[in-house]
Structure to design on (666 residues):
DNA sequence: GTGAAAGCGCTAACAT
DNA sequence: ATGTTAGCGCTTTCAC
C-alpha cells in the first residue's frame, strides 16, 4: 500500500524520457521506438504507476463516466432501469455511477450537483420541480430525463402510461368489472397519465372512477389503504394500482380480510416487476419496459455525447401482461 | 447552458480581489472584511460560479465520495445494503457512488480500478479471487469488504451464516422434518457457511443432508431445480435455499407441481427480502441484516477515513424470521 | 486581512 | 520519434 502514488513524472524520470512521451504512449496517442516503449512498460509495472484520473479528466474534460440518479434503489422498477443503462454503458466503454436520491430529497439538487461534476452526462429520474430541473440543466452537462416536462426542453423518455391505463381498464371492463378504483401515487410524475388513461376508458363505457392516493409507492402503503378501499359500502370489483408494489401489498391485505382475488376483486399494477410473477395470485401488470427505458436513456446519452442527433422525446409502448389477479384463468405462458 | 463554466479566476477578477482570497473565503478557511465577503458572494451568485471539484480534489486528495461495488443491483439484499450505507454516508457529508459488477465480471477489476480513482474509499461485495482482491488492496484506498478472506487481512463484515443455517435446520427439525435438502449457490462466498451450519445441526440429530447447486441466486433457478428436487423418489420434507430468491422460485414451481407448502414440503431462505412477506405462503427466512451490514460497512469506512481504530472483522447476528412456509401456523406479527 | 506565486499530475500544442 | 513548454482550476505557503 503506497502512500504517495507514483506520478507520470516518476515514470518519465525512471525511464529516461519526457513526461510527454510517457503520456502519449500510455494513452495510445502515438507509437514510439520499441526500446522506449519497453522501458516505459517495465517501469510502469515496476513502480506500479497508475494514472491520476482526476488530473487527466481536468484537462480532457472527459470522465468516461455517466451519472444516473434514481429515486429509490429498493424499487425493482428502478433497478431494472439501471441494469439496462449499465449494459449499454459498459459496451460503450463507459462506467455508470448511481446515486439514490430518496434518502435525502432536500439535498437532491446538491447531490446532482456533486454528481454532475464527476461525470460526462446525467441520466435522471426525479420528482423535482421544473424550476429545479432548470438548475440541473444549467449544470451544463448532457442530460437525459425520464418523463416529459412542460416547460423545459430536453431529451426525455417515457412510457405511454395513458395507453397503459386505458389497456388495463379495457381489459377489466372486458372481464365484467363495473366498479373500478384507482389507487394512485400523485407525487409521481407518471400518476397523472395512468389515471387519465383509466378514466378515459371508463368514461367511454359510461363508468365512473374513484381514486385513492398513496403516500409512497410501497407495498406497505397498499396494505394500509386496503381496508379503507375494501371495507366501505359496495367495495370495488377491481383495483388498478399506480405500481406493482402497491398492488402486491394491497393483494396481501385483501386476502387477509377474506377477499378472493380475482373473484371478489381483481387487482393490477404497473411496471411488471419480477415479483409480480411470484405472488399469489400472480399479478397482472403493464410492462413499461423498465430495462428498455434504461437502455434507451443510455443510448440517447451516447448520442448526445457523440454529437449525434437523437430524438428529443421518445415514448415506449406498454404491454399488458395478463396474470391470475385479473383473469382467474391459467396465466399465459 | 453555459459553455465554459466560470472559474475562481473570473470571480476574483469580477470581485477585484485575488484568487487566494476567494478560495479561502469560499472554503470557510478564513474570514475577510464584510465588504469583501459581500462582494464575493454577490459575484458568485451573479455569474453562477461553481467550484470545479475535479481540480479541488486533485489538490486536496479528497473527493468526499465513497465507492460501493455490488454484485447485482436487482437483488433486494444488495439494494438494502446500499440503502443502509447511503444513509450513513449522507449524514457524514459523503456521497455514495455505486457500480454494479454483475454485468461484466471479466471487467470487474477494471471497473473497481476506475471507481477507486474517483473516490476516497471502497466498499466491496464481490466473488473475486483472493489474488484479485490483493490487486484491489494495492489500489491503495481504504477498503471495507463483505465476507471473510483467508489470506488477505482487511476490514470486513459478515453475517453469521453458519449460525443462521444451524437455526434454520434446528427449527425445521423441531417441526418434525427429517429429510432436509439444501439448495445452494456454491459460487457465493457465503454458501459454505450456510450449508455448514445446516449440516452441523442435522448431524447432531443423526440426520444427513443432500445438497443441490444453483447456477445463479435467482428465482428462475429455484423454479428450474424444483422438479429435480421434488420429483425423485422420496422427496424432501424441507428445502433450505441459499437465499430467498431461490426459495420464492422454488415455492412457486413446487405449488405448480401440486405440492402443498409447508404440509408437503417446508421451504426457507436467507436474507429476509421484503418480498418474502408477500408471497404465498409467506417465506420463513434468516434475517441477515442487509441494511445493517451496509450501515456498518459505511461506519467502518468513516473510521478508516478519519484514522480512527475500527474492529477488523465484525460479525452480525442473524435472526430467524418465522413465516408460513415452515410453520403452517399464523405467522408472527 | 489580502495577494503573489508555486505547484497538484496531467495533456496538448508546438518545437526539434 | 521525442522533448519543451504552457497551462487546466484550484489550494496553499509565505509574504506584505
Amino acid at each position: 500500500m503506497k502512500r504517495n502514488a507514483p506520478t507520470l513524472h516518476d515514470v518519465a524520470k525512471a525511464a529516461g524520457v519526457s513526461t510527454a512521451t510517457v503520456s502519449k504512449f500510455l494513452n495510445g496517442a502515438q507509437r514510439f521506438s520499441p526500446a522506449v516503449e519497453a522501458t516505459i512498460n517495465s517501469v510502469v509495472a515496476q513502480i506500479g504507476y497508475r494514472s491520476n484520473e482526476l488530473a487527466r479528466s481536468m484537462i480532457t474534460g472527459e470522465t468516461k463516466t455517466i451519472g444516473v440518479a434514481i429515486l429509490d434503489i429498493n424499487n425493482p422498477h428502478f433497478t431494472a432501469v439501471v441494469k439496462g443503462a449499465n449494459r449499454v454503458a459498459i459496451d460503450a466503454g463507459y462506467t455508470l455511477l448511481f446515486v439514490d436520491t430518496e434518502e435525502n430529497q432536500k439535498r437532491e439538487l446538491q447531490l446532482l450537483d456533486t454528481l454532475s461534476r464527476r461525470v460526462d452526462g446525467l441520466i435522471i429520474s426525479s420528482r423535482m420541480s421544473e424550476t429545479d430541473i432548470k438548475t440541473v440543466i444549467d449544470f451544463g452537462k448532457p442530460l437525459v430525463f425520464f418523463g416529459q416536462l412542460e416547460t423545459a426542453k430536453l431529451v426525455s423518455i417515457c412510457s405511454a402510461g395513458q395507453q397503459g391505463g386505458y389497456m388495463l381498464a379495457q381489459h377489466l371492463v372486458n372481464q365484467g368489472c363495473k366498479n373500478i378504483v384507482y389507487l394512485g401515487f400523485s407525487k409521481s410524475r407518471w400518476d397523472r397519465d395512468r389515471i387519465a388513461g383509466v378514466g378515459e376508458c371508463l368514461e367511454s363505457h359510461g363508468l365512473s372512477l374513484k381514486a385513492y392516493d398513496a403516500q409512497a409507492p410501497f407495498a406497505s402503503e397498499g396494505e394500509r389503504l386496503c381496508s379503507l378501499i375494501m371495507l366501505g359500502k359496495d367495495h370495488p370489483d377491481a383495483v388498478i394500482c399506480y405500481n406493482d408494489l402497491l398492488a402486491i401489498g394491497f393483494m396481501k391485505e385483501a386476502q387477509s380480510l377474506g377477499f378472493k382475488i380475482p373473484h371478489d376483486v381483481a387487482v393490477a399494477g404497473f411496471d411488471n416487476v419480477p415479483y409480480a410473477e411470484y405472488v399469489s395470485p400472480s399479478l397482472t401488470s403493464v410492462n413499461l419496459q423498465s430495462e428498455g427505458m434504461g437502455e434507451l436513456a443510455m443510448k440517447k446519452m451516447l448520442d448526445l455525447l457523440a454529437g449525434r442527433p437523437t430524438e428529443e422525446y421518445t415514448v415506449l409502448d406498454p404491454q399488458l401482461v395478463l396474470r391470475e389477479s385479473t383473469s382467474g384463468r391459467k396465466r399465459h405462458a
Notes: Residues 23 and 29 of chain B are 8 Å apart (CA to CA). Residues 7-9, 19-20, 23-24, 27, 29, 51-52, 54-60 of chain B lie near DNA strand D (CB under 10 Å from a C1').
